[in-house]
Amino acid sequence: MSFLLSCPNCGPRDVNEFHYQGEVTTRPNSPQTFRELTTYLYFRQNVADVQREWWYHRFGCEVWFLAERDTRTNEVLKTELPRPPERAGMPGPEAPSIPSPPAA
Amino acid sequence: MRLPPQPHERLDRSEKVVFYYDGKPVEALAGDTLGSALFASGRRIFSRSFKYHRPRGLLCCSGSCANCMMQVDGAPNIRVCTEPVRSGMRVEAQNVLGSLERDVLSATDKFGGPFTPVGFYYRTMIRPRRAWPVYEKFLRSVAGLGKIDKHSDRQHRYDAEHRRAGILVIGGGRAGMQAAREASAQAEHVVVVDEGPDHIYGSDEDFEVLAPARAVGIFEGGLVPVDAGRILYRFRAEQIIVATGALEQPLIFPGNDLVGVMLPGGVRRLVNLWSLKPGDRAVVITADERALSVIGDLERAGTEVAEVVDLREQKVRQIVASGSFGQVRGVELDGRPVDCDLLVVSGGRQPAYSLLSQAGARVEYDPSRGIFVPTDLPENIEAVGAVAGDTGPAVVPAATYNGAGSKGKCFVCICEDVTDKDVKRAIAEGFDSIELAKRYTTVTMGPCQGKLCHLPSIRLYARENETDEATIGTTTARPPWAPIELGLLAGRPHEPEKLTSMHHRHADLGAKVMWTGAWKRPHSYGDPGDEAKAVHDSLGVIDVSTLGKLIVRGPDAADFLERIYPNKFGDMKPGRIRYAVLGTDAGRIMDDGTVGRLSEEDFYVTTTSTGAEGVIEWFEWWNAIWHLDVEIVNLTGALAAVNIAGPKARRLMERLTDLDVSNEGIKYLDAKHARIAGVPCLILRIGFVGELGYELHFASPYGEYLWDTILDHGAEWDIRPFGLEPQRILRLEKMHVLIGQDTDSESNVLEAGMPWIVKWDKEDFVGKWALEHVQERGFRSQLVGFEMANGVVPAEGGQIVREGTSIGRVTSSRRSKQLGKSIGMGWVPPELAEDGARIQIKVEDRLEEASVRLRPFFDPEGEHLRS
């Protein structure tokens, strides 16, 4: 890994300055089943495509931000600071959708 | 012996430099390389080959081949042909037993042939198996090149620097310089990187020239690491122009490795840069035009040119060089002998496309010229000059000029001593793909990294497989482009060492210091057992500045903490403290500490010493999701902290502050602001060590002052400073869990015996669902205390055993002077998590009896804490 990542605060920096926190997942509001819980905790979409993910500028301004990165080329299409969600209650990480669990 | 001054010579004839070869002084001129100076001193043999220990001499004089590698100032494998001389350098031959002229190991060349065919090490010295240690000892002594001096002091500092450039030009030859000049007229910030040795640029260019410096690869995102000796520049450029030129290729014939067989560039450099006469009588055999220009240089140097063979016009089927003592004495051209002591050969020039290929370019075979040419360059990468295929007209040389019946060894790869016979044998054995053959024969895997053997080996492969070079294809070009010192890749050793503001006082007191994360902390001041006892008996003080210290502040602060911890905080009154355990959404314990409410919207959070950074990242991450109105401020470094503990702690505090420190004034788990000896402090009344205790948090710069004041006034009660080890004994007596010691990344707060932390009536908190699941499924294992039946202290990590089966493990164990017992904590199955349950613990080979304890060993009712 040696690409540049653009911190919304500091601009383009070497990727080694950052901590990668993985793809954005959905925290279910209240999981009904054990399967739902483990899916949230452990299953990742792992797409070969553009992925929305969390990054932290650990050796920089210490801000968390979201990036859209093509996992095949490491091309970063977009980075942005997270926006407040418009949901009530205690929302989890915003995300596309929960992946369906693999067939047993 | 030098020639008269040459127009482009690199020498300063007025300045002499002396270095040492095998301990004997050698005189050089400023501007010499070690190689040119040794050549001037009469040396012709520069190394012994890898396998057969054949004599080898200067071949390329450009740092490409492996023929001149020596030990220089203790560093192995230095190519002396490009290493500038410095006064006092110590140079030694390597890979020889004896001297370069008489190397005992050269017996392998004469007698080893039948026993050392390609891949012999996969087949021989295997049986009998018992003899392997003997074989290994022998092989280790002869394998490898050069010796690393394990006892040498690290003399060099290596550094890395990140750099940006508008346009990075790799290669400072004619094409590279022209590209750089054109670019600098239009673009800003042009940088040229040139590895030498033929630098042709002036000192007045409009752009920066880094030389000698070598681009070692082109990596993802256009990262170009540049080896500049002691510093590695990590370049990122908007555009990269590759002008790495072309590599002169050898011809493959028997005796092609003899000393005196040279590439045209090597001859040209000897004459022009260092004014040396390369030989007395030369034969030139060439497949291209460029090599012919060397004839003028030879004449100027006074070398008689006996014969010139231009392969484009003249058909030669068989070339056999012969010599004595490893040095060329003549060459037979189709059976016709010609005497010579210099044989200049050129098999054309191959574009040095490695960097382009690493960057993603394709490589295509051009059958008309017999070379591989880069195509399909990636965006933002340009190739100029010879590397782009502009190598001039040439005829495709034969794969070998090894006629039937000739006996001498005919080397395809001189670094690894691989002959044409070896390659044929590998093919006969079924290694018919170039990638497999490369690994089996090690052709292209030597120190020259294929620069001189890649193309010839493909050519030979094509011929032996009766196909063409395009079908054979190339092997993958991998970084680094040239060898690089490991130290340069490792960079400067970076071990941050954090010291508290009282650290020097500990050192003065003779503390035994240990690492905890990045912090250095006192392990003890001599006797951990006595220090622990002093806390029970009277008074002790410990520096706890390493604790993580954060402020969580804002209208949503209580809400935030209640979401992130299993604990409750909303009901806390300002001025109160709670022990809190942080967990993940999977229910795993991350960290622990105290949370004090300073006001309605102000919380003071402490973390473990090593957990501070992680906890802050964790807090910030969740709040990047929740967007609560809360500020998180890290005060870890800004504040120092000490814990004053022991039955006399209150007496000391009364001395130091006006605050009412009675049990009514500040009770257990109270937090209050006050001046201590004049220093504004936050006082937390907590008791990790189990005795009456006050933890003082204050601005770091007051560290030494407050420490001294506490020790001065505490002297009346025989105050003892205590370290981490006595603290561990004390907390174990209280069965206080040490996160990361008693718990691991799988532990949850329920099984770790702290169910009271979890407030189930909260609607949600991080980890709630996972902990609910643990409740439902039942416990698998529980963290308990234990007491040994006799005084033995089991090892931490030791097994807890029942009926011969391991059922758990010891996580902490110590001898307590206070209790007169050996105690510990460990994980046991839930059915044994009962006060008094009998367990056995493995101590070395014995099983020792122990009984489970669920309540603190010391002061189970907490009377001391609350006193």
- CATH fold topology of the largest domain in chain B: Gyrase A, domain 2
Q: What ranges of chain B have pLDDT less than 50 throughout 5 or more consecutive residues?
A: none
What distance separates the N and C termini of chain A? 35 Å
Helix content of chain B: 10-25%
Structural class of chain B: alpha+beta
CATH topology of chain A: Folate-binding fold
Strand numbers in spatial order across the main sheet of chain A: 3-4-5-6
Q: Major sheet of chain A: size, sense and barrel closure?
A: 4 strands, antiparallel
Total of helices of chain A:
1
The CATH homologous superfamily of the largest domain in chain B is named Probable tRNA modification gtpase trme, domain 1
Total number of beta strands of chain A: 6
Report how far apart the termini of chain B are.
94 Å
Indicate the CATH class of the largest domain in chain B.
Alpha Beta
The biggest beta sheet of chain B reads:
7 strands, mixed
* Assembly type: heterodimer
Tally of domains of chain A: 1
Please report the number of helical segments of chain B. Answer: 22
Which CATH class of chain A applies here? Alpha Beta
CATH superfamily of chain A: Folate-binding superfamily
Structural class of chain A: mainly beta
Provide a descriptive summary of the structure in words.
The complex is a heterodimer of chains A (104) and B (867). Chain A has one helix and six strands. Chain A has one helix at 34-42; strands at residues 4-7, 11-14, 19-23, 50-56, 64-70, 75-80. Chain A has one domain: Folate-binding superfamily (Folate-binding fold, 2-Layer Sandwich). In chain A, the strands form two sheets. Chain A has a four-stranded antiparallel beta sheet with strand order 3-4-5-6, with no helix packed on it. A two-stranded antiparallel ribbon of chain A has the order 1-2. Chain B has 867 residues and is of the alpha+beta class. Chain B has 22 helices and 46 strands. In chain B, strands 8, 9, 10, 11, 12, 13 and 25 form a seven-stranded mixed beta sheet that branches. A six-stranded mixed beta sheet of chain B has the order 37-38-39-36-30-40. In chain B, strands 41-44-43-42-45-46 form a six-stranded antiparallel β-barrel. Chain B folds into seven domains: 12-124, 2Fe-2S iron-sulphur cluster binding domain, sarcosine oxidase, alpha subunit, N-terminal domain (Ubiquitin-like (UB roll)); 157-243 and 349-393, FAD/NAD(P)-binding domain (3-Layer(bba) Sandwich), CATH 3.50.50.60; 248-348, 3-Layer(bba) Sandwich (FAD/NAD(P)-binding domain); 410-478, Orthogonal Bundle (Arc Repressor Mutant, subunit A), CATH 1.10.10.1100; 502-545 and 637-734, Gyrase A, domain 2 (2-Layer Sandwich), CATH 3.30.1360; 549-636 and 749-757, Alpha-Beta Plaits, CATH 3.30.70; 779-866, Aminomethyltransferase beta-barrel domains (Elongation Factor Tu (Ef-tu), domain 3).
